[in-house]
Amino acid sequence: MKIKKVLVLLMTCILTAGTLGSTVYASTEDQIAAAQAQKQEAQAGLAQAQANISSLESKKQELEAYLAELDAQYNELTNTISQLSVEAAGKEEELKVVQAELEEARKTAEKQYEAMKLRIVYMYEKGGSTLLETLLSSESIADFLNQAENISKISEYDRDMLKKYEDTQASIQEHEQKVEEESATISALLTEKSAKQQEVQSMVDSTSSNISSYISQISASQEEANALMAQVNSADSSIYTLMQQAAAEEAAAQEEAAAEDASDEVYEEPEFDPETDTMDSESSSTSSDIIVEEEAPESSGEDSYDESYEESYEDTSDDSYTEDASSSESSDSGQGTYLGNFTLTAYCNCAQCCGTAGNPTASGAMPTAGHTVAMAGVPFGTQLLINGTVYTVEDLGTPYGHVDIYCGSHEEALSFGLQYADVYQLN
């Protein structure tokens, strides 16, 4: 019989199929790792872009606050200039009035001065004869004294008017000087405020231009961030698809292995009969089998093969059944519900991993190393047993079948790499 050859052929096929399945699965794992690397690179770029946006937004807000101050300053200068312009116009009108008064006082004084000069000349020319003529022409002494007193009063009047003219002229000149000084001061302030207003306007224009530049930079950075976010989402989609593919490949490999095991049992049991079948030297697949068949009788070889095969089959079957039963009982009871062999990665709460640093999880809780994991497909608060550690699902970001474990630092997350482990649900 060719039973042993059949067994060798079946084992070879199983091993070959397993190797091919492992190769395919390993290739899928490489693709997953590459997708993870692309995702991390995109996340790093996204974090940098978001940091740039945050910095640009901060600078833009500072410039906007500064622009508001400049606008307020410009408006204040505008109001001041308007007030000074009104005051300057008032001083110009006041100066015109004062100058008109001064001119009128000068004309009056000149008239008085000319009349006084005539009287003085007349009195000087007439001299003492005037008194004599006055005496002779007077009707009485009283009349003479009255006329002499009048002449004295005229002279006194002239002196008073001259003094008044001098005082009036001095007052008007003083007023004129004061108005001119005030007008000059207002004009100087007006010039200063106008120059300051032009300076502020220039600063307003420059600040507005800088704000527009920051807005353009923010827009460009936002477009970059959107593109990187699309890359992250695409990588997540690819990872999810590849993980499903890997799971399907693994399941197919397991099913194929189980089918091969079942097929092996079907071929072995009905064809093997120790009473009728004999061992042939051709049935040996190794040099040691050939030596045994040559040294021992054929019947002895059959008895040896029968006993070893039956013992091996019985031991293997019993152990396998016991282990499977124990494993099934443990999965459903002591370790919770077995979910499968999941992909494990790690992350931390930094900007490179999460886009922005220091944020709480999607559930609202702050992540904790050795406690928090991220996985979709189960509600928040679900407890998972992984490699002897109980974790709680408090964050999203990974599809079902992929668990992202929170670490206390970015170095720990990087060193974690890509792993696989059996996952059990405890609640």
In a nutshell, what does this entry contain?
This protein is α/β, with parallel strands linked by helices. The protein has helices at residues 3-126, 129-137, 141-271, 287-295, 298-332, 351-354, 410-416, and strands at residues 337-347, 372-374, 383-386, 389-395, 402-406, 419-425. Among the domains are: 62-219, Helix Hairpins, CATH 1.10.287; 336-427, RlpA-like domain (Barwin-like endoglucanases, Beta Barrel), CATH 2.40.40.10.
Report the count of strand segments: 6
CATH structural architecture of the domain at 62-219 = Orthogonal Bundle
- The structure class reads alpha/beta
Question: Which CATH class of the domain at 62-219?
Answer: Mainly Alpha
Measured as a percent range, the helix fraction is over 70%
CATH fold-type name of the domain at 62-219: Helix Hairpins
User: How far apart are the termini?
Assistant: 55 Å
Order of helices and strands: HHHHHEHEEEEHE
The value of Rg in angstroms is 58 Å
Biggest sheet: strands, sense, closure? Answer: 6 strands, mixed, barrel
Question: Please, what is the average pLDDT?
Answer: 75
Strand content: 5-15%
